[in-house]
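Dear support,

I submitted the protein below through the web form. The confirmation email said the job was done, but the results page showed an empty box. After a refresh the structure appeared. I'm attaching both so you can tell me whether what I see now is the final result or a partial one.
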Amino acid sequence: MSATVASYLPCGRHLIADLYGVAAEKLRDASSMEALLRAAAEAAGAHILFSHFHSFDAGQGITGVVLLAESHITIHTWPEHGYAALDIFICGQAQAELALQYIKQSLAATHCELNRIQRGQSKM
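What the results page shows now:
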């Protein structure tokens, strides 16, 4: 299914999540993380446009983005601290919460601090 710019209002749900207690090996592999975030986008019902992930020096973390027709999912990881910073912004009918649930379960995070933000609602 093709998504067009005209099919989405400029508003949506933005989740900012700090995931703790994640096994270091899960936070070091850029290809596995890319596959995970792409699967999370699909679980949310979003339309993937492009993704790019970068590994830092051996044993260090990664940074990555999945661009969506509905906005984006990004992650930055610190394996030495078992920590991942996650940003999920989704407009339209896709469900940001489903993407977050998929990621938390897959990473087996022991703790999640979550901020929910409604974007673009006040002037619509």
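Response: this is the final, complete result; the empty box was a page-load delay. Residues 33 and 69 are 20 Å apart (CA to CA).
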